[in-house]
Amino acid sequence: MTRVTVLTNPASGHGSAPHAAERAVTRLNQRGVDVVAVAGSDPAHARRLVEGALERGMDALVVVGGDGIVSLALQVVAQSGVPLGIIPAGTGNDHAREFGIPTKDPEAAADVVVDGVAETVDLGRIVGADGTDIWFGTVMAAGFDSLVTDRTNRMRWPHGRMRYNLAMLAELSRLRLLPFRLTLDGTELDTELTLAAIGNTRSYGGGMLICPDADPRDGLLDVTMVASASRTRLIRLFPTVFKGTHVGLDEVHTARAKTIGVECPGSSPPINAYADGEYVCPLPVEVSAVPGALTLIRPA
Prior knowledge:
Blueprint: E1 3-8, H1 12-15, H2 17-30, E2 34-39, H3 43-56, E3 60-65, H4 67-77, E4 84-88, H5 94-98, H6 106-115, E5 117-128, E6 133-136, E7 139-143, H7 144-154, H8 161-172, E8 178-184, E9 187-193, E10 195-199, E11 221-226, H9 231-237, E12 252-257, E13 259-263, E14 272-275, E15 278-282, E16 285-298
Helix pairs in contact: 2-6, 3-4, 7-8
């Protein structure tokens, strides 16, 4: 590892990412690594910078920020063989959590880039009816949680976590079962669900183990289906997700497949899919596991 490109999302971690990047770059330089540091002014600009760096050649792409900047990087490095290193500096950091990358120590994460091992792992791929075609690393979700995120994104006040909490309360007041059609490796399932989460890895939302048995090395996706129209039961279920014990509850069912079609026919408003915490597209979508699509640097 002699030459890497370091891409920073300046907005990650409420603006703390640039400081984390500075610390990580200093450590990489101390370890004898030549660093080309770039920071995109917006996602499109950042992607152009990364594509340019790929063309010039590098030993690895290292991103500094949260799951959003990792998601952007995946669109460029998937199936390229270029290793991806992560310096966590976001709010959720679910990619880093999955692979044991230190989340609160930029220097230690930089040491992983130098001393770690490059492992090929699976990615998920989402193809939407609207032409969307994207990669994701952690979890795709649709249903109650995506409705909460939709509402959060429409709100201008308050700021921070409180906005999300208020959006959740508003959606809880309108809680209902949604008409889902899931097609699991060709087998169709028509059901009513609160939400469906499809995991390449175990967690989303900063450590919520929504798909606690997902393995990004098995060539399969895990599906967690929650069906509860009771606000009280859903609120009681919520803390169990952080331990992954929710999958033992009556309202929760799980499945595993390589390719999954997800539809929510007749739902009003239309249900959107989110993956790696980012908006993807409206349903319907087809989600597939792509074995070995990412080369990731993790601790040895």
